[in-house]
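quick q for whoever's on today - can somebody do inverse folding on this one?? i tried earlier but teh output was garbage lol. tokens:
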């Protein structure tokens, strides 16, 4: 990802375009100072990297993050509208770097599988109720997050992946954890979780990978 972001900056500036950083998805909580403090610290760290690399702008998920990001941006830009003069000719990225999706030391865990299930259920419940963006675990999530979550589950089930404790990720394990996570969210009687669970089952258990979750979800909208 670092190779991608640095190449993005070099490419944009080479063509005279603004390089815009990614969204800071962390959400401050006005009722919980600790959550807010952690969110601001993570956002500051993220934006220091972006502007330090040469980004000209960025975006955030919550207005309370703007002052922190402005402070970082002003520290790099000063009175300048951008830093497009930074051509980043020091960046030399290979195809192998761009396509390397490996995570050193990364493993599939039960906690990770549960998180994917829970996040996908929560987002689809919100989506079915008319919200395209949803605050989940102090992060602002959109359809991309749910797509990643359900895609990983489908891949793990259909490609014989195993958890770090040796258990295979199977249909039955998925169904067991889905039921348990659903209960934590209030069960099928809460919101539109019954439909969300049905959709997630179809997305994760279908023989063929479904291209977009919204393609099968639109028919459930009121």
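ok took a stab at it. sequence:
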């Amino acid at each position: 990802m670092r190779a991608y972001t640095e190449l993005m900056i070099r490419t944009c500036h080479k063509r005279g375009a603004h390089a815009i950083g990614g969204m800071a998805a962390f959400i401050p909580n006005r009722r919980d100072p600790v959550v807010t403090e952690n969110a601001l610290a993570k956002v500051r760290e993220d934006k220091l990297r972006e502007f330090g690399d040469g980004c000209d702008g960025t975006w955030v998920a919550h207005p309370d993050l703007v002052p922190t990001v402005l402070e970082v941006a002003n520290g790099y830009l000063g009175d300048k509208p951008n830093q497009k003069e930074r051509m980043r000719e020091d960046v030399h990225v290979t195809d192998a770097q761009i396509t390397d999706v490996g995570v050193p030391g990364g493993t599939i865990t039960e906690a990770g599988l549960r998180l994917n299930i829970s996040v996908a259920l929560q987002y689809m419940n919100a989506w079915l109720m008319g919200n395209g963006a949803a605050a989940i675990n102090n992060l602002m999530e959109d359809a991309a997050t749910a797509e990643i979550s359900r895609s990983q589950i489908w891949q793990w089930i259909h490609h014989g992946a195993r958890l770090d404790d040796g258990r295979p990720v199977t249909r039955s394990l998925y169904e067991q954890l889905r039921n348990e996570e659903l209960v934590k969210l209030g069960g099928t009687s809460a919101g539109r979780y019954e439909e969300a669970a049905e959709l997630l089952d179809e997305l994760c258990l279908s023989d063929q990978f479904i291209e977009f979750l919204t393609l099968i979800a639109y028919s459930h909208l009121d």
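fwiw The CA atoms of residues 93 and 130 lie 41 Å apart. also The longest strand covers residues 20-24. so keep that in mind when u check it
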